[in-house]
Write a structure and sequence with these properties.
By secondary structure, the chain is an alpha/beta fold. The chain has a single domain, classed as TIM Barrel (Alpha-Beta Barrel). Helices cover 38% and strands 14% of the residues. It contains 13 helices and 11 strands. The strands form 2 sheets. It has an 8-stranded parallel barrel, surrounded by 6 helices. Helix 6 links the parallel strand 4 and strand 5. Bound molecules: flavin mononucleotide. The site of flavin mononucleotide (FMN) has 29 residues, from strand 3 and strand 9. Flavin mononucleotide binds next to strand 3 and strand 9.
Length: 352
């Protein structure tokens, strides 16, 4: 491991027991494998497992696999967004989605769908039973989770996208706040959506110092941070570390499927778009056939119904390596991606 200059030892490092102020974002779609999470933690950062809607057995297995691979701190991430009001016309949505099913050889989607009960309380219990050191929460008010987590000895990290959300998270007693700027890949982490489903889009450079000034806990900067320059900029803004998602998508240990990797390599800073179409909540992804056809005449179902309705399409697209029909979440720092690096090399290069 590289020597650590004192500027790289922040309160975040002391609080979470990290050598370096680098946090790998919890990500869905099988990207954050146990190998990736453990490798980041072993390299001195904090690896986070994205566990949104994971089956309980899979979650417990993944946590145990991480613990077998590292004795360093790591985290588990959940999306805590509440269901939104809006379009519930499932039959019409399915008729539209059936064109993608045809391409993938899938049967037509069912015209009726019920939302499955949220598994989050059960999954949270597993996180506590397994003594996971850090609970990471995105896309919602962290309030009801903080006390139970602290009682179980876990630290809580909440992701926000405005100063008002940061103040709310701090009042709830969270230990770390990730300030997510508009450049970020994946879902916008706003607690609630506006009347028309819109969200504010404050860039990382503007958001981070305003959040730092508003709260007393350590702040992580998120959105567009891809290398040491980004980390240095984050620290200069008063953040005490960087939360990086997109940069780890090409890590050797990540579960990003082959066609997703190809699309990332070919994309540049102008190739992403923020759209609610794939899941019902605004998220930044690469522009592809899925997003473009949805943009040209599709009203997505409300969150989380849209994702439930299209889940068979996304699963089949990933399994059969069809990146055109999968939501390819990605941030704007795309030209800074590097090929064929391990997670440890990414952490070391960023620090160096
Ligand atoms: C592929 C992908 C999946 C993501 N999934 C999640 C998730 O499940 N939960 C979450 O809180 N954030 C998720 N995010 C957002 C990250 O937490 C973080 O805000 C973002 O990656 C930071 O910006 P960057 O991608 O430019 O580094 C995801 C981001 C990406 C790129």
């Amino acid at each position: 491991m590289t020597d650590r200059p004192s500027a790289l030892r922040t309160r975040l490092c002391d609080l979470l027991g990290l050598r370096y102020p680098i946090v790998q974002a919890g990500m869905g779609a099988g990207i954050t494998t146990s190998d990736l999470v453990a490798a980041v933690s072993n390299a001195g950062g904090l690896g986070i497992l994205g566990a949104h809607m994971m089956p309980a057995d899979t979650l417990r297995g993944a946590i145990r696999a991480i613990k077998e691979r590292t004795d360093r701190p790591f985290g588990v991430n959940f999306i805590v967004a509440p269901p939104e009001p809006g379009n519930t016309e499932v039959a019409a949505a399915q008729r539209f989605l059936d064109r993608f099913r045809q391409d993938l050889g899938l049967p037509p989607g069912p015209p009726n769908l019920a939302l499955p009960p949220s598994p989050i309380q059960d999954l949270m219990t597993i996180v506590f039973e397994e003594r996971v050191p850090v609970l990471s929460l995105g896309l919602g008010d962290p309030g009801r989770f903080v006390e139970p987590a602290h009682e179980q000895g876990a630290q809580v990290m909440a992701m926000v996208s405005t100063v008002a959300e940061a103040i709310r998270a701090a009042e709830c007693g969270v230990d770390v706040i990730a300030a997510q700027g508009a450049e970020a890949g994946g879902h916008r982490s706003n607690f609630t959506l506006g009347m028309d489903g819109d969200v504010p889009m404050v860039g990382t450079l503007a958001l981070v110092p305003q959040v730092v000034d508003a709260v007393g806990v350590p702040v992580l900067a998120a959105g567009g941070i891809m290398d040491g320059r980004g980390l240095a900029a984050a620290l200069a803004l008063g953040a005490e570390g960087a939360l990086m998602g997109t940069r780890f998508l090409l890590a050797r240990e990540s579960g990003t499927f082959a066609g997703y990797r190809r699309a990332l390599r070919e994309a540049t800073e102008v190739d992403t778009v923020v759209t609610p179409a794939p899941t019902g909540r605004p998220a930044r992804s690469l522009r592809n056939k899925l997003v473009e056809e949805m943009a040209a005449g599709y009203e997505p179902l409300s969150y989380p119904l849209q994702g439930v309705a299209a889940m068979d399409v996304y699963r089949a697209a990933a399994a059969s390596d069809h990146p055109d029909l999968f939501p390819l979440w990605a941030g704007q720092g795309l030209r800074l991606l590097q090929e064929d690096q391990s997670a440890a090399e990414i952490v070391a290069a960023t620090i160096a």
